[in-house]
Design brief:
It is a single chain. The mean pLDDT is 89. The protein has 8 helices and 4 strands. Helix 2 packs antiparallel against helix 6 and helix 4 runs antiparallel to helix 5. Strands 2-1-3-4 form a 4-stranded mixed β-sheet, with helices on both faces. It has 186 residues and is of the alpha+beta class. The protein is globular.
């Protein structure tokens, strides 16, 4: 199993590198990165999309038609659209999540950015996201790209991960600690 995961990671890295170089040559890094972030959101939100790209029973042509229709509907850049078509024809759509992550990581590294994964109970407003990004920029000392996610089970507060560091100020965690302290375990 671990060699299978490593193989998928290597495959994703190779495809991400190829897409990165093409986007860089054509001066489309920001557009392709935006497209890939949209795809990342689609992957996270749609079980049907994840099932579609992982389907072993779909023909290559049907995969290509489906993914190109999705790309057109989402208004993706021509380079991103063609790349998705290539993945479909080569039966590599299953690695899309890894490809997106590898591309965005390479872009962030090239720009000297660090990505912060921020999970909140409710969607952050633009003002809150900007204030959080500014605070993280100051704390980390580098430009921080905020990747916001929503998890209503947090009840309130934030969980912020930057690299190997994590700060959990969620109400859920505070209540769990209080529960343990009241039991005498903590």
């Amino acid at each position: 199993m671990s060699s299978e995961i490593a193989g998928t990671k290597g495959l994703a890295d190779r495809y991400a590198s190829a897409l990165y170089e093409l986007a860089e040559d054509r001066k489309l890094l920001d557009q392709v990165a935006g497209d890939l972030r949209s795809l990342q959101t689609m992957l996270g939100e749609s079980v049907d999309f994840r099932r579609f790209i992982a389907s072993p029973v779909m023909s290559r042509e049907d995969l290509k038609k489906g993914v190109l229709a999705l790309a057109d509907k989402a208004g993706l850049n021509e380079l991103t659209r063609n790349f998705l078509g290539l993945l479909a024809v080569n039966r590599r759509l299953f690695a899309l999540k890894g490809i997106v992550s590898a591309f965005l990581a390479r872009l962030a590294q090239a720009r000297g950015e660090v990505t912060a994964e921020v999970v909140s109970a409710q969607a952050l407003t633009e003002a809150q996201a900007a204030a959080l990004a500014a605070a993280l920029n100051q704390a980390v000392g580098k430009k921080v790209a905020v990747e916001a996610k929503v998890d209503p089970s947090l009840l309130g507060g934030l969980v912020v991960k930057v690299g190997s560091r994590m700060v959990d100020s969620s109400i859920r965690t505070k209540l769990q600690r209080l529960q343990l302290a009241m039991k005498g375990v903590g």
